[in-house]
Design goal:
Layout: H1 3-9, E1 18-23, H2 30-40, H3 52-62, E2 68-74, E3 80-93, E4 96-103, E5 122-123, H4 128-141, E6 146-153, H5 154-163, E7 168-180, H6 181-186, H7 197-213, E8 216-220, H8 224-244, H9 254-267, E9 273-280, E10 283-293, E11 296-304, H10 314-328, E12 333-335, H11 345-350, E13 353-363, H12 367-382
Parallel strand pairs: 4-6, 11-12
Antiparallel strand pairs: 1-2, 2-3, 3-4, 3-5, 6-13, 7-12, 7-13, 8-9, 9-10, 10-11
Helix pairs in contact: 2-3, 3-9, 4-5
């Protein structure tokens, strides 16, 4: 975002905490990254999508072509108590320019999207109400027509909507299945025991057939080099499966691949990423790419070998063994995250609970908002 936009973003008088904003430049985010990391250390509920590793990799990959601004909230003593990124896209709707801001690591081209979930402001524990209210006040004063919160937590959705009550809100909720590892551990640690009868029998049958041929074991990358090698193997397996179906896989975009390799290099030492390989004898059965923070594991993507037949349920086996590993390692949850419509039934079959994530479009009141809403409605109708 250019200097003029940054000045306009900072207009108005916000109540305490003090709000400050500045443009984000590629290659110059190191000082901000240290501040982000310090705040993250005091935010025990912050998700893996708010780690300094994830955000820094996003800035490195996309800031050159995507206007970004960082907004910081400070208390009366000047201590940082909240922060976030906003990215800006300018679209045209019915010949009128539309300024849309996206919260945190979203807003890049759709084909390059890295996808963000459990999205929220990064706040020091106990200061959430003040930070949300004042950052929302700044948004209300800024030259923005729409604010999009992609993959936002229920708490973030509730707080932003309450802080901008005069803005209209379109909310799309999605279920995110997860395994409550704490509850499972307290119940004896048997993942199979909490599944439905059909899923339990299917998994037992597949595990038995695999083990009749060779050992099943879990390997976890212990260095950046191993993590990058597993990532490349995962991408190859993932792309092979989708290409066989005549579709483009999730890593066709070079920018997306660059982002993930940068993230892995930054995140591995901080233990914010988990690359996990399930082996069947000397062969790889599948590789999982997971994000990690504050005891929570979020499954991001997988590559699974299906050449031995789907009747062996290799995807279920890989996730079941990964859940067992995370259970033994002391993690709190294993989150499958939402799937595209019509996909992800296997996630529900392996999960013990669900929570909701929302994608929210907040629209400023006034004629421009009504015009953009009408243009969007007509576009959908003609489609």
């Amino acid at each position: 975002m250019d200097g003029e936009d940054c000045r306009r973003l900072s207009i108005g008088e916000c109540s305490d905490p003090v709000i400050e904003s500045h443009g984000v430049n590629p290659g110059e985010w190191n000082a901000d990254a240290r501040h982000w990391a310090g705040l993250f250390a005091h935010a025990p509920r912050a998700s893996p999508y708010l780690t300094p590793s994830w955000v820094h990799a996003y800035v490195d990959t996309f800031a050159a072509g995507l206007p970004m601004v960082q907004v910081n909230a400070r208390n009366e003593d000047g201590a940082l108590i909240g922060t976030c990124l906003f990215t800006q896209r300018i679209d045209r709707r019915a010949l009128v320019p539309l300024s849309r801001w996206h919260l945190n690591t979203a807003g890049e081209r759709d084909e390059d999207s890295v996808v963000v979930e459990h999205n929220a402001l990064l706040c020091e524990a106990g200061h959430e109400s003040r930070v949300y209210a004042d950052i929302a006040e700044l948004v209300d004063l800024a030259p923005v027509d729409e604010l999009t919160l992609a993959g936002a937590t229920e708490d973030a959705v509730t707080r932003f909507c309450a802080a901008l009550p005069h803005w209209s809100a379109d909310i799309e909720w999605r279920d995110s299945p997860y395994v409550d590892l704490e509850a499972l551990r307290a119940a004896g640690g048997d993942h199979l025991a909490v599944l439905s009868r059909n899923t339990r029998e299917r998994l037992r049958r597949s595990l038995r057939r695999y083990r009749e041929v060779a050992e099943l074991r879990v390997e976890v990358a212990t260095s950046v080099a191993e993590a990058l090698a597993m990532f490349d193997e995962m991408v190859a397996l993932h792309e092979a499966r989708w290409h066989a179906l005549g579709q483009v896989g999730g890593f066709a975009s070079q920018a997306r691949r660059d982002f993930h390799r940068t993230f892995i290099q930054r995140a591995h030492g901080a233990e914010h990423v988990q690359l996990l390989r399930v082996c069947h004898g000397k062969r790889t059965l599948g590789v999982l790419y997971n994000l990690v923070a504050n005891g929570h594991v979020c499954f991001y993507q997988s590559g699974v070998r299906y050449d031995e037949g789907r009747q062996l349920s290799p995807g279920l086996v890989v996730h079941h063994l990964a859940i067992g590993h995370c259970l033994s390692a002391g993690f709190l949850t294993y989150d499958f995250l939402p799937s595209a419509p019509g996909e992800g039934r296997y996630k529900l079959s392996l999960a013990t609970d669900t929570h909701r994530l929302g994608t929210v479009l907040l629209r400023r009141p006034g004629w421009r908002g009504r015009w953009f809403a009408l243009a969007r409605s007509l576009k959908r109708r003609f489609r």
